[in-house]
Write a structure and sequence with these properties.
single chain; about 230 residues; mainly alpha; 2 domains; about 75% helix; transferase; EC 2.5.1.30; Heptaprenyl diphosphate synthase
């Protein structure tokens, strides 16, 4: 536990240094680093026994992609007359583009071209789904962030064949932690969260499930429960 927590803290610190831009910070505040998402990715790639340096590359790239999607989602669509707010909107667009460029940069510098293809396809699926929601073809999800997280996690899980390590039910195991992005956004959230935890427990208590990962998830969920 200590080793994994220490590694996660270092990854988050390195990510913060990577995405920090003084102009954006002064005008928009601290970058929207997805801490839970990074932690989920770390557990997923550790379970797949991905080498440390490669794991760090994919976590940083995927986090930057997640930040780009989240930031672009915050851009107001209505006409803005106020000059100050118009400037903020322009900077928000540039911030999303900046995080997106870091996603490509991290994987390209490591020669992970197949990784770029895989995560770019996840981005396309995410944007297609959001367009259908905004055009009324699908019901609007209570949490856009969860859609983005699921698509990126699924792409990485497929890329590293996670089902051979954890099992085909890996998404059910992670669902309670993904649902935390929806906290307070709609009624009945706590019931959904507790039901998801019950389903996850049935899987991680099976003999084939990695013991260390079960302990990590149990401790994490217990911590989140105390914070509810």
């Amino acid at each position: 536990m200590t080793s994994i927590s220490t590694d996660q803290n270092k990854i988050l610190m390195d990510l913060e240094r990577l995405v920090m831009n003084s102009d954006l910070f002064l005008n928009l505040g601290a970058p929207p680093i997805p801490t839970r998402f990074v932690r989920l990715l770390d557990l997923l790639l550790t379970a797949c026994e991905v080498p440390e340096e490669r794991k760090k590359t994919f976590i940083q790239a995927a986090a930057c992609l997640h930040m780009a999607l989240t930031t672009h989602e915050q851009i107001p669509l209505q006409t803005i007359e106020n000059e100050g707010l118009h400037r903020v909107r322009q900077l928000t667009v540039l911030a999303g583009d900046f995080y997106s460029s870091l996603f490509y940069q991290q994987l390209a510098m490591a020669g992970e071209i197949d990784g770029i293809v895989s995560l770019s396809q996840a981005t396309s699926r995410t944007n297609e789904r959001k367009m259908k929601m905004y055009c009324g073809e699908e019901s609007v999800s209570p949490s856009i962030r969860k859609i983005e997280s699921v698509e990126i996690l699924t792409a990485i899980a497929d890329f590293f064949l996670v089902e051979h390590r954890i099992g085909k039910e890996w998404m059910i195991v992670l669902l309670p932690l993904l649902l935390l992005d929806e906290q307070g956004e709609h009624t009945g959230w706590q019931d959904r969260f507790h039901d998801a935890v019950s389903q996850a427990e049935k899987i991680w208590r099976q003999s084939h499930f990695p013991v260390w990962l079960r302990r990590e998830l149990e401790q994490w969920i217990e911590q989140e429960r105390r914070n509810l």
